[in-house]
Specification:
Blueprint: E1 4-8, H1 11-18, H2 33-39, E2 47-54, E3 57-66, E4 77-84, H3 93-107, E5 112-117, H4 125-130, E6 134-138, E7 144-149
Parallel strand pairs: 4-5
Antiparallel strand pairs: 1-2, 2-3, 3-4, 5-7, 6-7
């Protein structure tokens, strides 16, 4: 792992984010149904989006939302998305991105962060458990709700 930094998503970095590659089979786990529905009503002032840069190369994207007024508890403090380029997976980039999001949550006074994902072979569950998330429930669509306490 080189010199990892979190920087704000910008016009200069969004192209690189859109061109990141996935490992075979990961595309089916990109975005749970619940996120697609909730994303239509996200407040831009509560959304937090960053890219992970290694040197000058964009290697990951992480997005969260922190909104204590959200009517659904599991969306009040949530890791929306994390994508690590296929070539950079397994190097601690994802763990670094999650740590940055957890720090932001703490700075905003949150006491936990949730993540929602679809269970399945090759899915993100093992990663989320390795970085400290514990399954605590299920959405109305059958997706796993996992939580990490801060």
């Amino acid at each position: 792992m080189g010199d990892l930094r979190l920087v704000e998503l910008s016009a200069a970095t969004i192209v690189a984010v859109n061109n990141m590659s996935l490992k075979p089979g990961q595309e089916e786990y990109l975005s749970p149904v619940s996120y697609g529905i909730a994303a239509t009503v996200v407040n831009p002032q509560t959304t937090w989006q960053r890219v992970v840069v290694d040197g000058e190369e964009v290697v990951a994207f992480v997005s969260g939302n922190f909104d204590l007024d959200d009517p659904q508890e599991h969306f009040r403090s949530v890791l929306w998305r994390i994508n690590v380029d296929a070539d950079d997976q397994g190097r601690g980039v994802g763990r670094f991105a999650v740590a940055g999001l957890l720090e932001e949550a703490r700075n905003r006074g949150m006491d936990h962060v949730n993540v929602i994902y679809e269970a399945g072979e090759g899915g993100p569950q093992a990663f989320f458990e390795r970085v400290g998330f514990t399954p605590v429930g299920e959405t109305e669509y059958g997706e796993v709700i996992a939580e990490i306490r801060l």
